[in-house]
Amino acid sequence: MAERAAPVGVMDSGVGGLSVLAEIQRLLPNETLLYVADCGHIPYGEKSPDYIRERLRRIAAFFHEQGAKAMVLACNTATVAAAADLRELYPSWPLVGMEPAVKPAAAATRSGVVGVLATTGTLQSAKFAALLDRFANDVQVITRPCPGLVELIEAGDLGSPALRQLLLGYVQPLLAAGCDTLILGCTHYPFLRPLLADMMPADVAIIDTGAAVARQLQRLLGAHDLLADGPAADTRFWTSGDPQLMRKILPLLWHKSDSVQSFSL
Q1: Domain-wise residue ranges, the chain
Q2: What is the rounded CA–CA span in Å between residue 170 and residue 232?
Q3: 102-207 and 8-98+210-262 share a CATH fold
Q4: Fewest C-beta atoms under 10 Å: which of 23, 114, 135, 199?
Q5: pLDDT tens-digit profile of 194-242?
Q6: Residue 146: active-site member
Q7: Known catalytic membership, residue 75
Q8: Overall CATH class of domain 8-98+210-262
Q9: Which of 39, 146, 179, 186 is catalytic?
């Protein structure tokens, strides 16, 4: 059985999952965190489910080697493709995935129109269709795949004219349709909140699921008697891409520049 002081492994296809990592650290400051950014294989949203499942098996095996007591898939596309597979492979391992916040958005909308910004892979998934069928029967949900956004954020671009123009092109049709609630269906997108706030009326609610993922992790660790007593060790980072590039981006998206190691299997 894992010890309470063992770390929690968090992964994403890139640096977007840092938005979830921050929520986990905020709620569970005693937990030691490990983070793998699979930047060498981004974007997941354009990859096949089989490809993503193979990547996640490798990352899960790596976290096991590091002694992780739980794993968080801080990526909607990875959750859709691989969560069930990983739960079958590691049935006793607490595993937290994520999904677009359709239920809270449907409850929050006043106009009855909800917008979703997400990757192509998430929007085309059966799981997303099931979410709409379960929670969004009484509202109109307008989806926008957002090719290009992840790549710009991965490069550390959070506010260039090119990014602003691309994002505006995705947001304007939603506003024109009467959207008053916006779901950020990719973990990269919370880093665009300041830009979105400039583009949208103040009464448009912007919803992501980072905090809900942190709460679910807290529940699972508690149920397995694995909540850490602290103090937490420094967060460790790995990337399958260029470690030097991630070292440059970390100060923009994380509260400090931690050490980054190369991840390769």
Answers
A1: 8-98+210-262, 102-207
A2: 40
A3: yes
A4: 199
A5: 999 999 999 999 999 999 999 999 999 999 999 999 799 999 999 999 9
A6: no
A7: yes
A8: alpha beta
A9: 186
